[in-house]
Amino acid sequence: MPRVLISDELSDAAVQIFRDRGVEVDFRPELGKDAEALKAVIGAYDGLAVRSATKATKEIIAAATNLRVIGRAGIGVDNIDIPAASAKGIVVMNTPFGNSITTAEHAIALMFAVSRQLPAADASTQAGKWEKNRFMGVEITGKTLGLIGCGNIGSVVAARAIGLRMKVIAYDPFLSHERALEMGVEKIEEVEPLLARADFVSLHLPKTEKTANILSAERIAKMKPGARLINCARGGLVDEEAVAAALKSGALAGAGFDVFAVEPAKENPLFGCPNFVATPHLGASTSEAQENVALQVAEQMADYLVHGAISNALNAPSVTAEEAPLLKPWIAVAETLGGFAGQVTETAIKEIEIEYVGDVGRLNQKPLTAALVAALLTPLVGEGTVNMVSAPLVARERGVKIAETRKDAQGAYGSYMRLIVTTEVQTRAVAGTVYGDGKPRIIQIKGIGLEAEPMAHMLYTTNSDTPGYIGALGMKLGALGVNIATFALGRADKGGEAIALLGVDEPVNAAMLAEIAALPQVLQAKALRF
Is 398 in the active site? Predict the structure, then answer.
């Protein structure tokens, strides 16, 4: 009988689900905050069920000699070392949709609290004052709500706001116009026009390299005078010092934050500002949400341990034991192609087509397509919010059409996959195959042939095919202290557009990328991670 350790608070119903499905379970939530004690006992268990308190670090995972699955009751997996788990063949699962309604409702609640100054009015009244004239609020009806991010949670907020007779506008590069029209939302192409129009601005996007500090001091200064700002998404999306200054000057009429750049937020520049409402990361803190994610993670883990079924895995596709060895190298190709396209795509994706050419076309396409779509969407929606099971659903919710075709072997390669991504402004294709060493290779980008093995850190450039570019790029990287490990080149025609895909030993940061992009031959430069 498989054994599961629950090291954080989970409901009695979740514990019972394990037992009803033939899994022995030990409920020891005190271990979540005692790493040494957890490390001492983890070797006896097949599964570990956690919330956010338990830190499944590399050291904990190294001691987990029998562990087969880690289940996170919730979305965020920052407390789990996924690469370490993957290296040991441990499946990591989460529950990405269990908190959506609860978090959306919390954002709406903060909008009401800020618009009517409810916390300050409550404190004043309970202090024996009767300051009726002090707390003059505003109606939400008829106001414009600007959503920055309109995915799973943002779309729920949009629906609730429309029900409150608000006008909803949204900035989300990956929201298609068709999906926006279906939701009754006006899509805005840039952040600044949204800020200029919105009476309320609410953030609903993950924190990634692209979204960190998306509301900078410069952008906050462009918000509509008297606007109100809500953040129930992630800390670090907003310049908190700039928001504090805007509240004190009266440029912003109010703000409500559930998340902060540093948590627990014992002190913060926003604390004490006029009409600022703060809650301690309560977005998922309802009995319904906590119960939903607890039950879901128990069901998923039990199904895997007893039947081998994989659901909502962040590091493993849904495959049978017989298919696994055949699919494994092609899943790596799928993840490479999706990861490449996701990192270079900057506008809303309308359609993707996946061509399976030759022998790969006779394999089970479902896990390959799911792996590719998950890798494609992850750079766009954030780590932990999409996986190989939820990827097709997330794609449909964003209005992305998925087409799959099988073709007979053709060209120089007997078997390969090609991904064709159509956005609102262009169509881009990338192809890959498996070499004799069992590792993936990128063999074509935008119809230009090349051979490149994915590395942890890579640099992709499109450039004009002119003499001296290779030397100029090499010298620039050398000056930046970036060592080149591999260098793949290709071009369409002599003197036309060319591409370069470099494997590098060090990550290329934004400042370095700006210098590379400034080279006269460079048309586009992207830092990639695989």
Answer: no
